[in-house]
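User: I'm putting together a small comparison set for a docking exercise, and I want a reference complex before I start. The sequence is below, and the ligand is zinc ion. Could you produce the 3D structure with the ligand included, as structure tokens?
Assistant: Of course. I'll restate your input first, then give the structure tokens for the complex.
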Amino acid sequence: MKPSDNESAMPNSKAAISRTVARLAIPLALTIAVVSVLGFVVLTRDVAQAQQLNVQCNADRAFDYLEQVCRIGPRISGSDGMLRQQQLIIEHFQKFGCEIRAQSFDAAHPLNGQPVRMTNLIVSWNPRAKQRVLLCCHYDTRPYPDRDFLRPRGTFIGANDGASGVALFMELAHHLRQIQPTYGVDLVFFDGEELVYSNRDKYFLGSEYFATWYRDHPPEYEYVCGVLVDMIGGKRLRIYQERNSVRMAPEVTQSVWNTAKRMRVREFIHRVKHEVRDDHLPLNQIARIPTCDIIDFDYSPWHTTKDLPSACSGESLATVGNVLLQWLTEVRIGE
Ligand code: ZN
């Protein structure tokens, strides 16, 4: 408002002018104050949005996926349950228009040597990107809950140890197209992580096959780094840095935990606790893809009949999902 513009409409006397100015001055000052405050709020919100994604995983939906997978029952490599799970995963990601590949091979059954059909599933986002990030989990379940004191030959459902990674990736499908990841993204489901009946049996059959194939048949693209998730759905989620990850993939590990720290996600604890052998070993050692393991190794129902949906939580899945989505948009390895 410029007083000179309205001069003709204003009263003539100085007193009247000063009263008018006084009447106008207070609302004007208030308007300026309000505009300044609003401007500040808008500005700070813009800055915050630039730093933090406006995308949130849906905890209820993620938990529904976990229950859907568990309703199939055990998903042991080569079993009918595993086939039904493959169907569920393929149908889910087809709805999002993703490219899905199956990498199949036979492995000898540890009990009788008979061939067991193994299948890794690879779901690609932005398949043309030559530099890619590998997000992976295992999706087979252990034949028996052998740490179960009362029922070591009972039914093992693997709600956290098996279904949680699958449920998380199914939930990520809803968000990956809304974000702009630094690199192309492959979600990989490894078979044969634990087709084991005794400690002598071989772990990581699927990831080892995948890593060996990648080393011996270099594709047109390159995996810049990888993140493995395992047991990330437990109710009381605590994720420490894992020793092998820190040793073999320090930059990736730090980048994930730094993202979590910036997001104030307290479930990611910036300290090394466990040393875990998991699917990240073949990826680091054979494929030379620096890969860290995000694993809650303090989950008490581990390898027991109590690893059920009731021991898991959609909030935990969403927490890890939100960190991963944010991390995908800001990760830069080796730059
Ligand atoms: Zn396990």
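The beta strands are 99-108, 115-125, 131-138, 184-190, 222-230, 239-241, 268-272, 291-295. Residues 103 and 120 are 5 Å apart (CA to CA).
User: Thanks, that's exactly what I needed.
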